[in-house]
Amino acid sequence: MIKIGDSLPATTLMEYSEVEGEGCSIGPNPVPVDKATAGKTIALFALPGAFTPTCSAKHVPGYLEKAAEFKAAGVDEIWCVSVNDAFVMGAWARDQKTEGKVRMLADGDAAFAKATGLTLDLTGKGLGLRSNRYSMLVRDGKVVTLNVEAPGKFEVSDAATLLAQAKA
User: Fold this and answer.
1) Mean pLDDT of the region 135-153
2) Residue 53 pLDDT more than 90?
3) Cβ atoms of residues 31 and 14 within 8 Å
4) Residue limits of the Thioredoxin domain (predicted)?
5) What pLDDT sits at residue 122?
6) Phi, psi (deg, nearest 5) at residue 110
7) CA quadruple 118, 122, 123, 129: dihedral positive or negative?
8) Cα distance between residue 131 and residue 53, in whole Å
9) Which residues are tagged catalytic?
10) What average pLDDT does the structure give for the chain?
C-alpha cells in the first residue's frame, strides 16, 4: 500500500471536459498523474463509486463546501478519484456542480487504485473492484498525509480532516 513519502503511481486518469480549451477536447481527456501533480499541492480523495449514497451526500459536498478554504491553505487543486469511466464522472460532476472546485477524475480500469494498493473488492455487491475510501495531501507528486477509511466507514477521509492537515 502507498504510504507517506511515496510518489503517486505514474498512471493516467481520465477527465470529462464539457468544453474545448487549453489543449482539451470535449469528452474524455487523459490526465497523466505525474505531470498533473508536478509542482502542485493536491488534495486528493478517492471513493468507491459515483452516485453512491455516502459519496454523493457527504464526501463530495464536503470538499465543495471547503474548496475556498483549501485554496487559502495553499492547495492548488482538489481531485476526486473513483473507479468509474470518464462519462460517468462527467455526469456526476454536472450533478454535484463541481466545476472550478473539484476535478472529477476517472480511474476506469482501476489502474491507479491497484498501483496504490488501495482497492476494495465489492464483487459480491455487484460493483467489482473499486477504490477504497481515503484522502491524501500530495505535494509535487509525493504523499504528505494519508487517511484510509476502515471498510464501510466515513470518519477520516472527509474534507475537514484533510483541510486541517493542509493548514498544519
Assistant:
1) 96
2) no
3) yes
4) 2-168
5) 76
6) 65, 20
7) negative
8) 15
9) 55
10) 94
Give domain status of residue 1, yes or no.
no
State the Cα–Cα distance between residues 158 and 133, nearest whole angstrom.
10
* 50 within a domain of the structure (yes/no): yes
* One-character DSSP codes across the chain: ---TTPBPP--EEEEEESS-BTTB-SEEEEEEHHHHHTT-EEEEEEES-TT-HHIIIIIHHHHHHTHHHHHHTT--EEEEEESS-HHHHHHHHHHHT-TTT-EEEE-TTSHHHHHHT-EEEEGGGT-EEEEPPEEEEEETTEEEEEEEPPTT--SSSSHHHHHHHHH-
CATH of the domain at 70: 3.40.30.10
Residue 40 is part of which domain span? 12-167
The answer to whether the beta carbons of residues 113 and 79 sit under 8 Å apart is no
